[in-house]
């Protein structure tokens, strides 16, 4: 006899696929591949011993068994999610969990956190810096700061920081190396990170400027390491103004050109739709938004 409950991840995928009757839309909703959705549905069907979807060349459709199962499973899964959120909020009212892109956490949010604690002593902040997108609806995070663009299924969102690309260098490098005929530091390498590795190509394409001849580059795993190397005068970088705006404003990094290019993705603050945050989480989210507004976001 099979276990009484199937894998919860299978059920989560089934719920999304059943709601849309589309593996591709479910994949977008869950931030996985359509193949991953298909594999989990097949695993659930094998566990149950019934076919939940009919497969066609143009898509999928729920079988009668799939429809009946969805009618019973979807409300129960939503109740489980809601109950978990309520218990977490009740037991952890003074704790706030946030998921955020590492670069923004290290270079923008981190330096400002002390000011929040001065005003709100006793609050425990859990800042999870991870480039991997997390399904906010089924997580125990209070809110997320995402570098992406709408739509955000199941989430309310608000723009947080305007992000633009502009090549920058330290004043010392500009002074010692000088600039070539195209405006780039002479014989200086381009500092890159693995997450934003195509920034220079995008900036050049959007501005119509030529690529520097014989351009060397150094690649780091973290954007904060790129910023540190650039501050030390070891090369130049393409700056994200939302992240290094403080460095530009105080003169530690200088724009090499006047042209700034808005990025396709932007920073947004996401909260779970129809799910009120705790008072503490709401206070922190409002403080983050205020900080963004005061820093030019």
From TrEMBL:
Asked if the record carries the keyword Repeat, the reply is no
A GO term for molecular function: DNA-binding transcription factor activity
One Pfam family hit: HTH_1
Q: Does the keyword DNA-binding apply?
A: yes
Domain spans labelled HTH lysR-type: 6-63
Alphabetized UniProt keyword annotations: DNA-binding, Transcription, Transcription regulation
Q: Can you cite a GO biological process for this protein?
A: DNA-templated transcription
Query: Which SUPFAM superfamilies would you find in this protein's record?
Result: Periplasmic binding protein-like II, Winged helix' DNA-binding domain
* Origin superkingdom: Bacteria
Family according to the record: Belongs to the LysR transcriptional regulatory family.
Q: What is this protein called?
A: LysR substrate-binding domain-containing protein
């Amino acid at each position: 006899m099979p276990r009484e409950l199937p894998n919860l991840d299978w059920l989560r995928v089934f719920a999304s696929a059943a709601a849309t009757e589309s593996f591709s839309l479910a994949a977008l909703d869950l931030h996985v591949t359509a193949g991953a959705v298909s594999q989990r549905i097949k695993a659930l069907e094998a566990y149950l011993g019934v076919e939940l979807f009919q497969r066609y060349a143009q898509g999928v459709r729920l079988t009668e068994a799939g429809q009946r199962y969805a009618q019973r499973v979807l409300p129960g899964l939503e109740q489980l999610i809601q109950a978990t959120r309520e218990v977490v909020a009740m037991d952890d009212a003074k704790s706030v969990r946030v998921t955020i892109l590492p670069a923004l956490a290290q270079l923008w949010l981190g330096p400002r956190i002390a000011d929040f604690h001065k005003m709100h002593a006793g609050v425990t902040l859990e800042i999870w810096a991870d480039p991997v997108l997390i399904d906010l609806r089924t997580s125990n995070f209070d809110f997320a700061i995402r570098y992406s663009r709408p739509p955000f299924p199941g989430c309310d969102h608000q723009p947080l920081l305007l992000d633009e690309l502009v090549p920058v260098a330290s004043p010392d490098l500009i002074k010692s190396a000088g600039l070539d005929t195209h405006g780039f530091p002479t014989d200086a390498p381009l500092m890159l990170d693995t997450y934003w590795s195509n920034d220079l190509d995008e900036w050049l394409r959007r501005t119509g400027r030529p690529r520097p001849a014989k351009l060397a580059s150094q690649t780091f795993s973290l954007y904060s390491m790129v910023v540190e190397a650039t501050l030390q005068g070891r090369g130049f970088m393409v700056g994200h103004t939302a992240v290094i705006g403080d460095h530009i404003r105080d003169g530690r990094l200088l724009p090499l050109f006047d042209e700034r290019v808005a990025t396709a993705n932007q920073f947004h603050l996401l909260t779970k739709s129809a799910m009120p945050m705790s008072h503490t989480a709401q206070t922190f989210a409002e403080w983050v938004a205020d900080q963004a507004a005061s820093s030019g976001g």
